[in-house]
Amino acid sequence: MPGTVRDASGVGRFHGVTLENGVAAPEKEKVVLVKKEGGSHWFRRFCPCCCRTQSSFDIPEKEVEGKEEEKLGDSSRIFSKMGQNRKEHHTDLYYSNDLIIRRGQMFQMEIELSRPFCPNTDRLHLELKTGSLPLVSKGTHVIIPLVDELEDNCWEAKIVEQYNKKIKLYVNSPSNALIGKYSLAIALQGTEGEETKTHESGKDIYMLFNPWSEEDTVYMESEDEKKEYVLNDTGRLYYGTEKQIGARTWNFGQFDQDILEACLYILDKSEVLASGRRNPVIVVRVISAMINSPDDQGVLEGNWSGNYAGGTSPTAWSGSVDILRKYYKEDGMPVKYGQCWVFSGVTTTVLRCLGIPCRSVTNFQSAHDTDVSLTTDVYFDENMEPIHHLNSDSVWNFHVWNDCWMARPDLPPGMGGWQAVDSTPQETSQGTFRCGPASIAAIRNGQVYLKHDTPFIFAEVNSDKIYWQRNADGTFCQIHCEKKAVGHFISTKAVGSDKREDVTHLYKYPEDSEEERIAVETAIRYGSKPDAYSSPTADDVRVEVQLEGEGPRMGSDAKLKILVKNLSSHPRKTTLHSQVAVMYYTGVLKGTVKKDKTPVELMPNEEKTIDWVLPYNQYQDQLVDQAALMLTLSGRVSETQQVLASQTSFRLRTPDINIKPEGEAVVGKQMSAKITFTNPLPCTLRKVVLRIEGLGLRDLHPIEIGDVGRHATVTVTEHFIPSLVGTRKLVASLDCKQLTQVHGVSDIDVREQ
């Protein structure tokens, strides 16, 4: 178990409490919690799809003789993952056999006593406790009384059936109950004046958010969407560039062994009090901070340096389970290393595990606004050379964050639904590296004054890119404005399939539409440069960069086409400056590898194509993670003084890993998969490691391949024994300093033996 947390707000550190009133009871009672299959007509109004015909008790009696103390008997059946409570609460997929339920929904329990319960003289109530200092006033110590009739949305219990020494209870919880781990006890008092005895069960009850309950703020109506955004334990993450969108499978694994405990441990380590865990806005904001590590020893340590000594390369991870399990087992030591898609994948796992609908989302051409101007600013000197030390704003090739679903009663009406949350540490929010939740509806309409961190996310998806040139006196003037430079092809996995769904329309209105311009102008008024826009200049020459097919491949010359168009009825002349730099996917440039100047003369309405080539030998020793490059074009039209400015990012495509299953896919029966990879480079890859994992197939298994020669093909055979039925995904990724983002996936349909 993890060690002691740093404050008194941790869930799951319990102490038994005994309530005493009067003299000792003359008869010792034994309480047995068991799980009973069965339902009732009354129960149908909570979960009609799960009701069954009511059955009579068939639990064998347990006689008590010679007992010195009261204590609970065998309670295993009520806590079984196959029990009716778990099925009706959609928690039967969790690995644990504990009672895992969702708030705002009735659950059942049975109690067996050593003598019949008499409603006229006996008194009974249940107690739940959570947090390090349970208090009734804070909602962390819950006393659940017996009532004659159950009412919705409050803590209460009702005896619905009694037979001899056994009673069956229906227990209600409110839709705003604290989520977390509770200890369970039963308090009993016999005839008036008897001492009240509290029986600790020794079992924990886990309470989660409930997207199936209309009263819960995370309620989601669509069953297909709940199946995808809460119950699906695998997904797809998107990366690359807007013209070369790549996809990789990610194992979220929110139901795996230790993951629920790890998620609650993360809340334990945070500074949020247990009493604050009823509000999904607070919980999501805490998770956003705790997934990264700069200021709170959170789950993942970010690393964008390219040097991953002492940890795992971010591109080598293919799931969240090993990250969360390692963090939990090692007493909260940050796991090395993560980048944006890893932070997002882990966030999806944690929020789905806690019951909040969540998905990973990728924004291509994602701006990073560093001065709250809500614009992305690029500065040039008098000779149109970039001034790198001033260009603190950047545009990432892609950035991955999360959408989570909830109502927002703290915001004006209409702001509920999908909320953006970003766990990658970029800028601080109220002194902590966190971001969100920000209403996507507010982002779309430019309402950046609404919390939390809406201005930052608005700039990521819809800021204008403004180019500035330094004057002789040191001042700057605006020379160009790109209104469509950021926020392209915002992508997430589609519901019920592995297809990519474009959700750009949720974040912004169509480019150049009146609504989109109004949203931008609304947002800019709240930024640090509200008067950034200059009067329009002549704008009749266009520059565009085109990729052929899926773009250049790693190991070959990179070839692009530059299209220059004259839209006027007059000749135009310019000199096109081009420079290409190796770039981290975050938009930070490592260094320039090639510069050119190309004179261009255009006749009226003429279009010219310039073939641009970057030889392999010029970039082979320069690349960093993601194999991304940035081509910057600039120039000035002689006749009109129009400034041409454009930046295009592209990546060098890497090969896929091919996975071919062999043999029958049957639970408990060994099978194998043949895994093949070809080195695309004309040089030897050093210290290659192949990482293989699959939920329900096998745990993470690194295979040391060693060196792989130029253009050589490697094939390995992996043996494993499936443990879960259904369509499972076997995922492979390559860990190699010279070649990143190499991975593959294969669907394996596993059947019962």
TrEMBL record:
Record GO biological process: keratinization; nervous system development
Domain of life: Eukaryota
EC number, UniProt record: 2.3.2.13
InterPro entries in the cross-refs: Ig-like_fold (IPR013783), Ig_E-set (IPR014756), Papain-like_cys_pep_sf (IPR038765), Transglutaminase (IPR050779), Transglutaminase-like (IPR002931), Transglutaminase-like_sf (IPR036985), Transglutaminase_animal (IPR023608), Transglutaminase_AS (IPR013808)
SMART domains found in the cross-reference section: TGc
Residue span(s) of domain Transglutaminase-like: 332-425
Keywords: Acyltransferase, Calcium, Keratinization, Lipoprotein, Membrane, Metal-binding, Palmitate, Phosphoprotein, Transferase
Reaction equations catalysed: L-glutaminyl-[protein] + L-lysyl-[protein] = [protein]-L-lysyl-N(6)-5-L-glutamyl-[protein] + NH4(+)
Binding site for Ca(2+): N462, D464, E511, E516
Similarity comment: Belongs to the transglutaminase superfamily. Transglutaminase family.
Protein name: Protein-glutamine gamma-glutamyltransferase K
Organism of derivation: Denticeps clupeoides (denticle herring)
